Amino acid sequence: MSIRTEKVASVIKRSLVNPISDIAREYRAGLVTITTVRLSDDLHIAKVYLSIYGGQTGPGEFITRLENEKGMLRRIVGSQVRLRLTPDLKFFLDDTLEQMEHIQNLLDTVNNPKKQQSES
Predict the structure, then answer these.
(1) Among positive and negative, which fits the CA dihedral 93, 94, 96, 98?
(2) What's residue 104's pLDDT?
(3) What residues does each domain of the chain span?
(4) What pLDDT is stored for residue 119 in this prediction?
(5) Which of 22, 31, 59, 66 has the most CB atoms around it within 10 Å of its CB?
């Protein structure tokens, strides 16, 4: 990513924090954090990665609700970010922390085989 796309992604991230937090509160989705915003080279598509913990609404259901609110979110981005074209927003679940935890558990199992046998 070029410096310009990184700067634009940062501004888009800041502009989406409050509206997504409001939607999360409304749908009781728990703690929702925007982990990363990645823009295509032509700035037409913004991939927004979210970390979702707790709450009464499942992560997949919350992503679907954000897709339904995409028009309103694009208007907010368009009003706060000065671009010729407001990028299309695509929302993804960021499961990096769960993957790291799984890998750590596997490494712990390999390093401590006696612990694995005692748990069985």
Answers:
(1) negative
(2) 87
(3) 3-119
(4) 57
(5) 66
